[in-house]
Every structure is written in structure tokens, then in C-alpha cells.
Amino acid sequence: MPLTAIHYLHVSQPRHGRGVTLLGSQFTVREFKIIGKRIPPKDAFDKVTGTGTYVYDMELPGMLYAKLVQSTKPHAKIKGIDYSKALQVPGVVSVATGRDFPFRIGIYVGDRDLLAIDKVLWVGHPVAAVIADSVRAAEKALDLIYIDYDPLPAVFDPIESMKPDAPLLHPDLGRYRVSPAFKPRPGTNIANEFHLKRGDIEKGFSKAEVVVEGDFSLPFMSHVYMETQAVIAHYRQNGYIDLWTSAQSPFAVRYLMGMSLGMPMGRIRVHVPYIGGGFGGKAGLGWEPLVAMLSRKVGYKPVKLLLTRSEQFRLAPVVAGVRGWGKIGLDRNGRIVAYQARFIFDSGAFGDYTVNVSRTAGYACTGSYEIENAECESYAVYTNKIPTTALRGFGYPENHWVLERLIDKAAKELGMDPVKVRSLNLLKPGVSYTGTGARLREDAGNPQKVLEEVAKGLGWGEKARDSSKPWRVRAKGLAVSVKGPSQPPDASASAIIKFNEDASVDVLVGTGNFGQGTVTSLAMIVAEEFGIPLDKVHVHELRSTNDSAYTWQTVGSRGLFTDGSALLEAIRDAKSKIKRVASAALRVSEDHLEIADGKVYVKGKPWHYIPLERIVMGYTFENGNAIGGPIIGSGRHIAELNTYLDPDTGQGTPTIFYTFGGTGVEVEVDLLTGEVKVVKAVQAFDIGKAINPLLVEGQMIGGFVMGQSRALYEEIIFDEMGAVANPNLSFYYVARAPDIPEEWVLRIIETPQTDGPYGARGIGENVMIAVAPAIGNALFHGLGVDVRHLPMKAERVWRAIREQRPELYQKALSALKEEIRREYESLTRR
Amino acid sequence: MGQVITLKVNGVLREVEVEPYELLADVLRDKLGYKGVKKGCWRGECGLCTIIMNGEAVKSCIILAVEADGAEIETVEGLARNGRLSPVQDAYVKNAGLQCGFCTPGFIMASEYIVRRNANREITPGEVRSALSGTICRCTGYKQIIDSVLEAHRRIKIVR
Questions:
Q1: Contact between residue A475 and residue A665 where contact means Cβ atoms under 8 Å apart
Q2: In the structure, what pLDDT confidence band is assigned to residue B61 with cuts at 50, 70 and 90?
Q3: Is the ipTM of this complex over 0.85?
Q4: Are residue B59 and residue B122 in the same domain, yes or no?
Q5: How many domains does chain B divide into?
């Protein structure tokens, strides 16, 4: 069988909605030289030669190394720490404990300590830091630090933790700094709660022909970005801090450091070279403030902290486990008349991003559908386990796992095709209101087309192909998904371009580069707009808060949309400056000038031109007189017309775009082992415009496999102390090359969004959201087996088959026995 | 108590003093400066430290440096000549067989081994998948990596 069959397709949609034509010539007429081409990533050379530098690789003169002592108790008071012996290890410079840093930090809820202050909250909680002249000396010293604990009752289950008599992790919750959108409940373990209310839920359900409900869950998972967390901090005697960190969002690191340490922002310089993966796990603030403080403590020397994989699993934030519940009502025509859902996010010891992930799961609970009556509640709850943070998808994989599965169950109950039910209820751009009561912009994309392409790509309605063995069954399933960036309503971005003497361009942006391809796309935009070769556009891999343009964060699939929009404004700015100079040099009005092919020329007389080289540093007349000067363009972007959400009903406008997508799968299930193999993947997304289809496909494939891995294999296992029991890549399995589907159908749909760069919307996260529901729906459809808890690992699927379809299991067993008997007979006959 | 070992790394003879407990990956990275050798798991699970030692692809984080005394070693840094990429590297670039790039050196070395080892025969996509199963990539979903290896293998066969 051939490895792959990529069916590549662009569907342009100049008209849509209710017959409204709304797209200007920007989208329909323009022909591109570079935009839309399949161009390899610009940083590929550095990466294939192994010469790109990550923080993991960096060493500074005089650098020291830090190692962290992990708590062995899930919840306990620290009575005393004796590190006198550790200080005697040759090479050990200093030991720090929580008492050295008596303050708390946190992106939304300031609940986090740098090192445990007086009490520990999970097995793994960093209690002390050793700083030494080598990693080995620091490691030796770790074993010589004695901590005297006074154990406290611990709570590991989020439901238990919500009860009034549960042991409190954060008795001071009411005194922590909290961002306005969040509502911790002091005196409880609830780090945040969110409520969405729309319409009349009782009335809605009263109109329902069928009502289906169910409990669902997702386990804790690890991001498994391949570069573990790494930070180098140099607190300088002159009051500046230089940080080199493997972080997604350098400006967020600076802002949060400044806020929590009370330092002037300009004195904190955050440098980010190549990043070995992020997936949300390196957003916000990590170890930076701790390592900066350690650097000061050891006499202003640079200090590096690098986590090993096992440390990464035990003490760095992972992804929250979720208990979900949903209830959906369909009327006899298949319209969704009411939807109710509840999500309890097991946040672990700190709230970090999970408070916002849970909030997002709540406000986006109605997915891609128009649902007039909806009530969703979502909680982030502290437990004595490893803290949790953001992951690619940010609440959407969680709420889709509930909603997209319930749709199929309800459709079956009603006797309707689930594709039909979806089609009937999908949001209509320009017409429908989302779950937060925001009217969907009319250029938001074409959800119907997405669904159609997934169904077509999967061959929906056609029987699944025969499996290789009678005890294996093939099945098809699909799900749709939506994703918008979860960002504050005033999140902004900027871009600067500056010309070099040879009319090449340096692009200064703040958006992080961990492989998403945004940087290549941004360079392509500059090359396109000035008509210069891509080789002449340079985007340095290093981001530095002191000389990169600001962007709020690199999260939420926002980079191309926000930073790309800012870049287009910077290009317009530079062009107008170039034209002003050229107008004097060519003696025509600025309005009559055009910039293309690396020249500025007179419209209609392209032979009357000045090459950009002669203008971008200033234009010199024959007699030596000069005008203009070096050209720099700057541009900005800020989210428009977004609002805070109503604190009681969750109503408002939370996002700048929604990307609609869908996933279809064909799976082969071994009925005797429960093993699920994905044989075919269909991905369809309406991203407005594919700036670089090669890299868009990379996102669609990579996101699918990450989604598949989460759906089928991944799960952090906790022991009775709440400690991570599988902190390595043998017992925490992630998808490997042999696991991926052999057949791929990738569909890019292009319904441009007027305010996106060339009409583009974000793609980076949506690509994994519908994968688990699609696989779950395939099991449900093809096998009649309902698995509602992730991962759908072999053991769980096997149990589900035996419990729900025992006859299927028996038939498969007989088929296997029959085959063995036949084989045996043919052998004995010989 | 250190011991001096000799390695031929990317064609250059290197002498280096190592401790008996030191791992080959650490010696290559920290003492000899081959930072292309990455560690992602510290225990032979992720394949990021893959190098070619005496003609075989091995994971250098589970080999003691002293065991490698006298070995001929190739790391990712040795593949490109004067800015010209090897066919494997070039295929990775063209197919976008990389994203964050952190696993790329390990994959490139595993792929070099696959392509060389099978230079005289056809290879199936299934064989490439199995041969790459020891290395983890979290970004790409492997497809474009597998495509890169198949393309490099085709090109090498044509050249020969």
C-alpha cells in the first residue's frame, strides 16, 4: 500500500453567507508571486545541520548550574531544612529555600511560590535549590539535604477537593493577586469558576424529542516538547537581568517578572533563541524568576537550570485532567434545543493557565453550533498533584470531547445521520450567535463546506473497507471543531521592518518560533509586498525583549493573524516613506508610484523607476544632494471589538476570529485486544488563506498525530501519594512513526476574513481538537461501543467491547479459533 | 580518575579525558562541542542523541564514553560539506520534515543510516516507519519525515 495519498485542494469562496458579496479585490483579483507557494521553512538549514542554538545548548562564561530538591510528601508543613552537609560538597556554591523568596507569582492567580514556602503541595514540589559549578556536584548535594516534614491531609481527587471539608491547599487564596476575569473562591480549593447562561435551559429541554447525557473524562497529559525546560539567568550588578529561556512568549515573561518582582520592565531583558517545542507548555512564566533570584544569591553569576525528562514529568506543569458531563436535547427535526455541560479541571497545586483553560472550555462549550439555550459551568480545582498549564487547543479539546460525542449519540437516538444533525446546527456566519451571544462575523469562514469536505474525504455513507482479519473491524467517524485565540480583549502585537544597504530587509517581530512556520510566512509577506526574493528577507531566530517588536504572547494560534497584520501595517508605513522620497526623485506624485520587483516605479511607465537599493538609505542626486534616509516601517495590531465576558452569564465577544475545521478517521479495531489503529485521516480547515500550504499541511498532520496520541495512548498515572508514576517515555507512550495513518486527505478551504493578513486565520491548535471525538465516534458507529474516557487505550476499548458488545467479542473469538484450527489442520495434513 | 580516550569524530581525531561514568552523549556535547547531539529523555527512549558509530546508528546517551574508545563517530555536524547539504538533509528541507528542529539531528542521523544501509535495495514506507520508531518527534506527525527519507533514498539510488 502506498504510504500516502495526499489529495490537495484549495476551495476559494468569494461568495457565501446569505448571498452577500463582501470580499474586496484584495482577495479575488490579486495574483501572488510568493504567497500561497509551498516554501520550505526558512530556518530549516540551521535545523538539519544541527547548528541552531537552543537554550539547552547555551553556556556562558562563569556559569553555574542549579538543581532542585523535590518534595517527597504530597501535603506537609516544612519544619526544617538542613543543608549544611550539602554545602560541604566540593563545587557547591549555595543552597536556596523558599524562605529566601517570600512572595508569590502567577499569570492569572498569584498562587505560586518559587520554592515551597513553609509547606509543600505535591510530591515533586521544589523545596530547595542547589547551585554548583557543575551539574554533577549539584546532583550529589541534592541527597545531602534533609527536610523535616509535618504531614497534612492531602486531596488528590478534584471532586473530593471541591467538598467543604477538604484539606485546603491555599488558605490565603483570598489574599492572592488575581486578574480581573478570574474568580477564585477563598476558603475553598476552587481556583476559578465560570458560568455561561444563554436562553432558557428548562424551556429548551422541554422541546426536546431526545435527551442524551453522559460523563466524560480526560487524563493528565504531558506536552512532551522535546526540549525540556531550560533557563539561564544573569542578574547583573548594574540592576539588569538577562534571561535566556526556552519560552514561547518573551514579552509575557518580562511583564510577569516585572509585576511579580516589582522590577522596572526595561531592566529585564528576555532572550529566546530556537525553542524545542512548546505546545502551550512554555507560555507564560516558568522558572525565570527563580533562576534570576538564584543568580543574585550566588553573587550575580549566570545560573542555568535544565530539567531532565523525569524532572520535567514530576515538577514542571503538565496538562490538567478533566471530569466532564454534558446533556443535549434535540427536537424531532434534529435541531439542538438545549445543551448543558460541566467541566471540572484538576488543576493540581497551582492555577497557572488552567484557570483560563477551564474558563475557555466554559465559554466555548457550544462548539461550532448555534444553540439558543445553553448552560455551562467550569471549575479549576486545586489538588495535591503536579500543577498544570495550557496545551494546544486550550479548553477546546476538552469541551469538544463531550459535545462532539453527545451529538453522535443523540443523532443515533433520533435515528438521524450525525452529519445531517451537524449540518443543521452549524453556526451561520453573519447570522448566528455563538454561545457567548456574539453575532458571528459574516466572513468567519464556511463551516458547512468544512463538514462537507470531511464527509466527502472520508467517504461518509460508504461502507468501511474490509479489514485484514475477521476479528478486526473497520469503522469511520468524524467530528467538527472550532477554535479562536483565548486572549485578553486588548491583546496587541507590533512589527518593525528595516532596510539594509542592499535593499534586503530585517524583520523584527516578537512572535516565538517553535516550529509553527509563522516566521517563514511573515518573511514571505515581506518578500511578496516589495517584490524581492525571499533570500533578501531576514528574520533573526533570536527574540529579545529589548530589540524585538512587542507582541503579547505566542499562543492561541494568533501569531500569523496578529503579528502578520502588524507586519502589513509596517510594510505600508515603509512603502509610504519610500514613495515620499521617490516622489521627489522621480518628480511625480506619490499616488502615481508603485513598488514591485524591488523597484519603485511610475504607474503606467514601469521603465521609469529607481531600484530600492538607491532609495532605502536615502536618495542621492547627481550633484551629491541627498534626501530621505534609512527606511524603517512600523506597524501595530490590537484586538478589535472584543469584550470582557459578563461575570454571571459569560456573554460577550471573546475572540478575534474562529477557525472552523473538522476531522474524519477510519480505524481498524482488533476486537480481541482492543487495539485501535488509525488507517486513514481526513483533515479540513477553513483558514481563510494558506500563506504557505506546505507548512499548513505540516500543522494539519502534526496536530492530527498529537491528537491521535492523546486520544489513544497518553496518560499520566498517579500513585497513592499523588506522585507521577510514569515519568519517562517508556511508560508514558507518545505516538511514534509506525503509529500514524497510512492514508491522508488534507483539505484547505479558503474563505478569507477581511481583517486577517490576505484573509488568513490561525490553524496551529484546531488541528488536534476533533481527533479524539472522531475516533470515539468511529468506535461508537462502527462497533456500537461507547468509550467516554480518554485515552482509548487497548485495555479500555477491550473492556468496553466485552461489556457492551459481548456477541461481537464472541464472534471474533470464534473466527480466531476457526483460523487457528484451519491452520493446524493444514499443517497436520502435510 | 580520568582516562584518555581517542575518538575519530567526523573525520577528525580527538583525544579527550573522560571519567568512567561519563556518557558518550555528554562527552560529545560538553567536552568536544558537538551540540547537535541532543538529549530529550536521558535514558535511550527518544533517540535525539542518535549518532553513527562504527557504521551503526546508536543512541549515545546510553553508551559510556570509555566504551567508545577508538571508535569512528559521525554526528549531524559532519554531514554537510562546505555549506552543501547531504541528500538526506536536503530532502528534510524540501519536505519540511522538521518543525521545532530539536529532534531533527537525531532523525537525520537515523535516516542517514537507513538510506546508506539500504542503498542497494528498494525500501518500503513500512520499513522506514519501523526503522524510525526509536526516535520521537512531537511536532511533525512523522509523515513529512518519512517522505524525506524515501525521497533521499530515491535520489541516492539514482546517483549511484
A1: no
A2: very high
A3: yes
A4: no
A5: 2
